[in-house]
């Protein structure tokens, strides 16, 4: 398709007019020659006040999906189930779609790929991961042939904002979370961000492009910061570290990859150490190109809207993801292989400490009566996944130290003796 002139721009159907939808609309109004015009806008709530005249909005998104006069569709609504219904319907019509819905893409990527192959449509979703950082297309194209040792990063600005407040200002979790909500950096229900469901979706999406693996999000470990305390922040600071919620994608020696998202102690020499507030950061360790680091705003109307715009330009130019590493042998893999992670565990009831089967205990702190406040040791990734919900329900805080090793034999849990306890 030849590039249209500004006199004859491509017509957009915009489904959703929240933060991202308004951000994209505003960007298109400010660009002198965008090559796009928002022809129709569909929203859910007729009574909500919006910054455009009421006649600009309609309330049946299916009408936009089925409108042959629209050249491109943009889906930026919150509901992942409704987003999948609309996007899958559009792809069955062979349409070109840009979306920012990371939960929808992560959960339904295999089906979305099948629909594109069968009906010839195209779906791009750069805006679904890390806002303004162009990570998906870079992994898919630039690193499409190169083996990657790891991809890791801070993929959620809301939890990072909270951790920054706790670390730099000494504010407690509840207070800085309320501040983040007041400033629009965290939702009224913060569980998607604080419990690491949001960065888990983003990590699952990146796994398809970095390693060619299609994962079920429910089978990927995610532990968040809902139970973090000032004691954990001090523990890290005394060791010259900060706590960050880090998503890790690791290449496995036998092929494929594994993915997990947890709080992690980050050293001062890591580029992630300096990623603060609502910013995101991505570190790629490539076999030949070495380490790359990208930092940018991970959320917000304009940063995410700019990512949507980049997808619209790419769709206009006929671009579609290649998924060069996706093959029949890599499409599915174990997300909890025989790996052990060194973890810091605080406030764990006795039965959960025993269930984690910690080995090689390197540090522990006891309160009077030997009720251990924290312990540092190794546990299997699969064990953490198995007990993830119980740990969350019990208010246990778990953070990785960053050390990972292969399991070579059946673990033999070590007893925490008085010699290992720092009174």
TrEMBL record:
User: Where in this chain does the record put each Homoserine dehydrogenase catalytic domain?
Assistant: 134-313
Q: Which UniProt keywords apply?
A: Amino-acid biosynthesis, Methionine biosynthesis, Oxidoreductase, Threonine biosynthesis
Instruction: Give its E.C. classification number.
Output: 1.1.1.3
In Swiss-Prot or TrEMBL terms, this protein is called: Homoserine dehydrogenase
| Pathway(s) annotated for this protein in UniProt | Amino-acid biosynthesis; L-methionine biosynthesis via de novo pathway; L-homoserine from L-aspartate: step 3/3; Amino-acid biosynthesis; L-threonine biosynthesis; L-threonine from L-aspartate: step 3/5
Has keyword Flavoprotein?
Answer: no
- NCBIfam families the UniProt entry points to: PRK06349.1
Identify the species of origin: Hymenobacter koreensis
Pfam families according to UniProt: Homoserine_dh, NAD_binding_3
Q: Name all Aspartate/homoserine dehydrogenase NAD-binding domain ranges.
A: 16-126
């Amino acid at each position: 398709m030849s590039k249209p002139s500004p006199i004859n721009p491509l017509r957009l159907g915009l489904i959703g007019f929240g933060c991202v939808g308004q951000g994209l609309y505003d960007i298109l109004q400010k660009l002198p020659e965008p090559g796009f015009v928002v022809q129709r806008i569909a929203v859910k709530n007729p009574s909500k006040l919006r910054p455009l005249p009421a006649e600009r909005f309609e309330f049946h998104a299916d009408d936009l999906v089925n409108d042959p006069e629209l050249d491109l569709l943009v889906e930026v609504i919150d509901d992942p189930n409704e987003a999948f219904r609309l996007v899958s319907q559009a792809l069955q019509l062979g349409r070109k779609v840009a979306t920012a819905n990371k939960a929808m893409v992560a959960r339904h990527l295999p089906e979305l790929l099948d629909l594109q192959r069968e009906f010839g449509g195209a779906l791009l979703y750069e805006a679904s991961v890390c806002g303004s950082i162009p990570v998906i297309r870079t992994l898919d194209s630039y690193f499409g042939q190169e083996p990657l040792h790891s991809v890791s990063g801070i993929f959620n600005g809301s939890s990072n904002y909270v951790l920054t407040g706790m670390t730099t200002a000494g504010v407690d979790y509840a207070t800085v979370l309320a501040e983040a909500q007041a400033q629009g950096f965290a939702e009224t229900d913060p569980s998607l961000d604080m419990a690491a469901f949001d960065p888990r979706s983003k990590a699952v999406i990146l796994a398809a492009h970095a390693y060619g693996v299609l994962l079920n999000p429910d089978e990927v470990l995610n532990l968040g910061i809902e139970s973090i305390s000032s004691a954990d922040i001090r523990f890290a600071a005394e060791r010259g570290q900060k706590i960050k919620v880090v998503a890790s994608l690791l290449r496995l020696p036998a092929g494929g990859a594994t993915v997990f998202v947890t709080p992690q102690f980050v050293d001062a020499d890591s580029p992630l150490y300096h990623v603060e507030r609502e910013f995101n950061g991505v570190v790629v360790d490539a076999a030949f190109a070495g380490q790359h680091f990208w930092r940018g705003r991970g959320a917000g109307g304009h940063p995410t809207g700019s990512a949507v715009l980049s997808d619209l330009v790419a769709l206009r130019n006929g671009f579609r993801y290649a998924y060069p590493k996706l093959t029949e042998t890599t499409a599915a893999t174990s997300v909890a292989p025989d790996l052990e992670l060194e973890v810091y565990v605080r406030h764990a009831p006795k039965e959960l400490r025993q269930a984690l089967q910690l080995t090689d205990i390197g540090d522990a702190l006891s309160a009077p009566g030997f009720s251990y406040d924290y312990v540092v040791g190794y546990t299997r990734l699969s064990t953490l996944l198995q007990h993830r919900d119980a740990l969350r329900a019990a208010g246990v805080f778990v953070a990785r130290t960053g050390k990972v090793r292969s399991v070579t034999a059946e673990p033999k849990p070590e007893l925490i003796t008085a010699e290992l306890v720092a009174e």
